[in-house]
Amino acid sequence: MVLLYLVVLVLVAVVLFGLGSALFGRGELLPPLPRATTATVLPASGVTGEDVDAVKFTQTLRGYKTSEVDWVLDRLGQELDLLRGQLAAVRAAHGVDDGSGDAGEPVEGGAHALPADATDES
C-alpha cells in the first residue's frame, strides 16, 4: 500500500514538473563568457569609491578568481598612477611643493594609529 502511494506521488511530481516546464520554458540561458574575459567591471577612467564598493568577484572553490582580482588591482593601480601624475603636473605648474621630501617619515595619527597615550601603557 505504501509503495502504491509512493509511485502515485512520484507520478504526480513528474506531471507537475512537466507541466511547469511546458508553461514557463527553461528560461534564458546565458552563454558562458569567453576565455580571458570577466564580468567584473570598472569605468575606463575616474574610478570612485562607489565603483570600488560595487566590484564583485566570481567565487571559485578556493576563494575568488585570481585573474579578476589581479585585473581590478591593475586598473586601480593605473588610475592611482594617472591621478598622481596629474597632481604632480598641477603642483609643478603652480610651483607648489609636492611634499616628497618627507616620504620616509612616519605619519602621525594615521587610520590605524593608536592614541599617543595608549602606546605608552604597554
Features:
mainly alpha, 122 residues, two-stranded antiparallel sheet
What's the SSE blueprint?
Blueprint: H1 2-24, H2 49-54, E1 59-60, E2 63-64, H3 66-94, H4 116-121
Antiparallel strand pairs: 1-2
What can you tell me about this protein's structure?
The protein is mainly α and about 120 residues long. It has a domain at about 35-95. Helices cover about 50% and strands about 5% of the residues. It has 4 helices and 2 strands. A two-stranded antiparallel ribbon has the order 1-2. Strand 1 and strand 2 (about 65) form a beta hairpin.
Summarize the structure.
The chain is mostly helical. It has a domain at 36-97.
Distance between the termini: 76 Å
| Helical coverage, percent range | 40-55%
Estimate the mean pLDDT confidence: 75
| Low-pLDDT runs | 102-122
Helix-strand topology string: HHEEHH
Overall, the morphology is: rod-shaped
Count the helices. How many?
A: 4
Strand order of the largest sheet: 1-2
Oligomer: single chain
